[in-house]
């Protein structure tokens, strides 16, 4: 659908357009209130939300059961159903998630790089909220709570658009959060859940550039591609992770085995799991047989290049599609490469700028990999699984951005803020 | 024009589309070379460019004379003609601009916030170039040289699209810069000037999201609006500046007079010049007569609200349009407001998030203004003219961004970079 034709081609959607615009305007209005809150008030609000969620857990579980039953009836199963399903323990995780965000330092109001200019003017950059954050996500209802907590703590209003499968769960969660807002005499529009499951609502939200400052898109490639084409609101893309580990000729093969196994097997369904293993040809013959057996024993299907298959006979052949694949499951592509340059060239061609790792004891090779490989995180002698807000010291995160502008890598509280220059003068003028 | 219809509706433009894509691809390729250059090489390249420009100044002036003659024939005059015109002194300014950028510290490779995680993994954020920067600008040919210098120093390739009036001047400047690139055996695609003056080229460039990382738009509201609607490449908007100065009841009226006069008169045609003066009603009767006379003597036309006109009888009445106007000339809107809240509300309603200043000796009022007013720069007791890369300590700038994401305020070298997380481990895995 073309950007400018949304309105003309969909006269039936005019009501929806007006509804989304109203939501966005109200969120903008609420954002001015939120920007002025001090940390103590925001922390007390998050505590109130945590308590509300503890008290309301039966309501949440009941709504979730209804979502899960409908999902089962419509044939949803496996990982998707698992992500949709809440239980006592998952609700407790949401509650402790709220308290974790409460405990994080508030970035708003910080002033960085304050300096005295030659004319005596003091200048620095003050952290300020972005304003209004739109958040489009899929089935997991806990994202409703996590995203709201991070947005509120950083002084932003948030407009949430969850998956339709979780609509009852999301609705009751939003209601509980809004009860807490009311107790603090704050506008409910500080956290809005878009009530309709009409898919057009996403595109309409993505065009509210007058009122929405950024849209965080967590979803499949189709969603992200549509938003890239249609959005006039800037996007933070939580893109796919085609992550590599390169085991260099001078790798410590003990470390390499642990890192490769961890990167693939620890949690294969997440974006920072390894999808392709690159092995230097000088050590492929020594390294591949052992790690292959260990991975296969853990249920990993291996798909290799010709050279890898010559070393590990049981390996299936990898096709061109395998090098670009984000499996998100127990499948691993394996390629033997002649040197560091070939590894970097492979990553540049097939990587998704998410997470890249090298295992080597060679200092110069490590430094070259660190400098020349472009990705949101580049790691030496560590598992790709470390590209994560908690692991990198940011605390809770709202997603991992694979783009270069504003925020790259895990999106924590600081990434949900902007800065403004502040100047403290005593009468300075330009001459 | 709708985003997705560019190709279908303009079969005649297919050649142009292919040409722009080819330019973008070549720039992406060149960007990998540039990202790997050390500061010494980049500085030597900038020095070579400075020398080339000194030696080629006759070529530049001849090309510029042809542009100026054509502009005169087509009826262009005044400020536009002035901005287009080069002379010996302006060429010297470009040469020294190159040397100023050469002298600035190179942000690429810096690592910020390196910390040791509990598991021993060292993590920090390394500054890296953005990659490929598109730059769309209007008549001033010096932007060609300034933009190229800043992009190259920060390790980026740049694609330039200047105004058609300056096409001969821009072409010879780009040729001179490319001669220097060749001497260093660097690809000419590191600095490309889009040769055609076809306006469709701008939209086509704005859709090369596969190869271009950001588009900097310096131009009129029409250009920026079109790009907001059509671009799939992220934008840095050099938006308009409707800048205010609020003279509070507790202002030092001596400072206030100097600051107001400077903000309006020092250089009225630039974006950080003041366009509206807000005056607290308690001091309006004392302050307005003197400053009005001084401004009028300097040729400033005053347009005021009822209360201001009651104090300064010669003042024209201000209309609703005046409050939103970016005059860029010797006109000033004047409004008397009852208090700080009214001043902040006026700025929120009519301001363009560019530069806002207060004059006051009241500490609490100053702090509230600093915190509650949202703009790329907020100043206390200083002229709005200080929102400038040089004045804020950033060195040379490529524009002033009025958006909140990635870069807000003057765009210096650091704003032309991104970061990547780097992790130095010794075998860490997630458990």
Structure description:
The structure is a homodimer of 431-residue chains. The first copy, chain A, folds into two domains: 16-239 and 410-422, Aldehyde Dehydrogenase, Chain A, domain 1 (3-Layer(aba) Sandwich); 243-389, Aldehyde Dehydrogenase, Chain A, domain 2. In chain A, the strands form four sheets. In chain A, strands 11-10-12-9-8-13-14 form a seven-stranded parallel beta sheet, with helices on both faces. Chain A has a five-stranded parallel beta sheet with strand order 5-4-3-6-7, with helices on both faces. The N and C termini of chain A lie far apart (53 Å). In chain A, 44% of the residues lie in helices and 20% in strands. Chain A has helices at 5-9, 14-35, 39-55, 57-73, 78-84, 88-103, 142-153, 167-183, 200-205, 221-230, 253-265, 281-297, 306-311, 320-324, 340-350, 363-372; strands at 111-116, 122-129, 132-136, 157-161, 191-193, 214-218, 235-238, 243-247, 274-280, 301-304, 316-317, 331-337, 355-359, 377-382, 400-401, 409-410, 417-428. The radius of gyration of chain A is 24 Å and the shape is globular. The longest helix of chain A has 22 residues, at 14-35. By secondary structure, chain A is α/β, with parallel strands linked by helices. Chains A and B meet through strand 2, helix 10, helix 11, helix 16 and strand 14 of A and strand 2, helix 10, helix 11, helix 16 and strand 14 of B.
